[in-house]
Amino acid sequence: FTKKMTAVMEREFGPIPHGEIKAAVEAAYGEYERHMKQIREKGAEIMAAARKEGRRIIVLAGRPYHVDPEVNHGIDTLITQFGAAVVTEDSVSQLAEPFKTTVLNQWTYHARLYAAAKYCCSQPDMDLVQLVSFGCGVDAITTDETREILREGGKLYTQLKIDEITNLGAVRIRLRSLFAALEEQEET
Predict the structure, then answer these.
(1) What distance in Å separates the CA atoms of residue 73 and residue 50, rounded to the nearest whole number?
(2) 49 with 67, same domain?
(3) Do 34 and 83 share a structural domain?
(4) Are 87 and 141 in the same domain?
(5) Mean of all residue pLDDT scores within the chain
(6) pLDDT band at residue 17, thresholds of 50, 70 and 90?
(7) pLDDT-based confidence at residue 166 (cuts at 50, 70, 90)
(8) Do 137 and 183 belong together in one domain?
């Protein structure tokens, strides 16, 4: 990455001392690792509290831009109103054992999504809701693979299409249906 970044930067800005680019790359990767550690620690804290309180945990999986409240319409808050705790795929994906997918798994977000789905399958109190935007064409592939991973693990698959939300009433109904189906599963 450092070599490629050096070539790009020098093409755009002229010669830059190699040491500066290397230091910037190392600092960026270091910050990324600190950020991911914070997310995982917070996720573990939320999951521990939910388990202590006997609450269901929902992994709300979406692309990084889905975190923006203007994009996700406050779906995380809706889920918590149903009494569940919410964590992201980033906070649990590292907990899954490596496994093979049926699709080419070359993107980091997709890998985290599939791993989070797989991890949910090993946790009786955990389920996954996937946020998708069909403006992003590869979501058609990720939905099929995620659905299959969850189905094989005996879990329900719930998808919310962000770009189809005009009001939260429909989302509330989908989530209410999910929680009712989960309750029914627990009773049987």
Answers:
(1) 23
(2) no
(3) no
(4) yes
(5) 90
(6) confident
(7) low
(8) yes
Report the chain's C-alpha Rg in angstroms.
Answer: 19
b/e burial code for range 101-135 (CB count within 10 A of at least 16 → b): beeeeeeebbbbbbbbbbbbbebebbbbbbbbbee
Residue span of the structural domain in which 37 resides:
1-54
Q: Domain with 104 in it: what CATH number?
A: 3.40.50.2300
CA distance 1 to 9: 12
Whole-prediction pTM: 0.86
Q: What gap in Å lies between CA 139 and CA 69, rounded to an integer?
A: 20
Q: What is the pLDDT of residue 136?
A: 64
Banded model confidence at residue 154, pLDDT cuts 50, 70, 90: very high
Per-residue CA distances from 182 to 108, 124, 147, 153 (Å): 29, 11, 16, 14
Q: How many domains does one find in the chain?
A: 2
Please count the helices (runs of H) and the strands (runs of E) in the chain: 7, 4
**Pairs from 65-70 (Cβ < 8 Å, separation ≥ 24):** 66/131, 66/133, 66/162
Residues 48 and 110 in one domain: no
